[in-house]
């Protein structure tokens, strides 16, 4: 892997892959370019384009073993108001507001409508 690239492991349901992402790139853009859908059925077409306004491109950070507690220390510091609230209250962080600087493991939760998660599921 080149010095200016970072590994990002992506988990969706039972699927897992590792991407090589240019350091400093927005996570949302890297995921979409790799064919990883961060949106629900409606928000796939109607979203804010990565400006941190619609709240639909949420991901969760995990440790490499899937342990969410381990991710608490590995997740990048939130800089956007929505991500600070997400970290505080435990809901997904906006991938459009995360700059990839260090290796990450993210889980893309399955979404029902807009950016809503399936009821009772915490992917």
From TrEMBL:
Which InterPro entries does this one have? Answer: 2Fe-2S_ferredoxin-like_sf, 2Fe-2S_ferredoxin-type, Beta-grasp_dom_sf
One MF annotation (Gene Ontology) recorded for this entry: iron-sulfur cluster binding
> What domain of life does the UniProt record list for this protein's source?
Archaea
Residue span(s) of domain 2Fe-2S ferredoxin-type: 6-112
- Give the originating organism: Haloglomus irregulare
Put simply, this protein is called: Ferredoxin
Tell me the Pfam families matching this sequence: Fer2
Question: Which SUPFAM superfamilies is this protein grouped with?
Answer: 2Fe-2S ferredoxin-like
């Amino acid at each position: 892997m080149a010095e200016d690239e970072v590994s990002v492991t992506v988990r969706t349901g039972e699927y897992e892959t590792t991407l090589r992402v240019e350091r400093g790139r927005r996570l949302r853009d890297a995921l979409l370019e790799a064919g990883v859908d961060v949106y629900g059925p409606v928000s796939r077409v109607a979203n804010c384009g990565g400006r941190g306004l619609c709240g639909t491109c949420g991901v969760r950070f995990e440790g490499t073993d899937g342990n969410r507690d381990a991710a608490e220390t590995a997740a990048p510091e939130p800089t956007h108001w929505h991500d600070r609230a997400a970290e505080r209250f435990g809901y997904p962080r906006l991938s459009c507001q995360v700059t990839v600087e260090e290796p990450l493991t993210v889980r893309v939760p399955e979404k029902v409508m807009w950016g809503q998660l399936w009821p009772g599921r915490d992917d």
